[in-house]
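pls design
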């Protein structure tokens, strides 16, 4: 019990719990829908947002959220509207996001000490501000999943049947991808996302 007197231990435990909630809920849809590669692409594309946030002087997590959502929506629209395969589009977004992050960091004056912590993660270094952001994002995930549970289930198991049944497949698919993006942002400070 003496460990709990340290704030970084309390933050690490809270971050782990909040990350497990997001992963447990969204991860099941990711596996069923077979969009596992999307997580890696979003996490690296989000680095562009981290660099932009640092350049603009705002919390890099907010930049990561914006870049993740834009990247995800872009991948979803391009995949559904063109003949390109999803993994091809994700690979392109992956490279562009990383490149933009490096460019934004290079444009920033001074030295950026902890930005690669957003890629490599460290559960013991999660500040309380990020815990609040993670909690808020978890609430958003829970509300959306409870609101669109049947639609998510329909598009994950049979898109054609969902379309015939009147489910707005494109919008539901993009919403699911946005949930994946939010989950990736939650995990950025907690665990290792860069695996190559």
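designed seq:
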């Amino acid at each position: 019990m003496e460990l709990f007197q340290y704030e970084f231990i309390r933050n690490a435990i809270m971050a782990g719990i909040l990350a497990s909630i997001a992963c447990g809920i969204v991860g099941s849809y990711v596996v069923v829908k077979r969009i596992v590669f999307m997580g890696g692409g979003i996490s690296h594309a989000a680095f562009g947002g981290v660099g932009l946030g640092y350049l603009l002087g705002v919390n890099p997590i907010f930049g990561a959220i914006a870049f993740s959502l834009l990247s995800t929506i872009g991948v979803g629209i391009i995949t559904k509207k063109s003949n390109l395969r999803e993994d091809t589009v994700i690979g392109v977004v992956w490279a562009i996001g990383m490149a933009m992050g490096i460019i934004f960091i290079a444009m920033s004056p001074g030295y950026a000490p902890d930005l690669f912590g957003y890629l490599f993660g460290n559960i013991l270094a999660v500040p309380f501000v990020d815990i609040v952001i993670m909690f808020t994002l978890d609430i958003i995930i829970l509300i959306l999943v409870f609101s669109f549970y049947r639609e998510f289930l329909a598009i994950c198991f049979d898109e054609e049947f969902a379309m015939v049944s009147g489910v707005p497949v494109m919008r539901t698919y993009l919403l699911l991808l946005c949930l994946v993006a939010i989950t990736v942002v939650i995990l950025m400070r907690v665990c290792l996302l860069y695996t190559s």
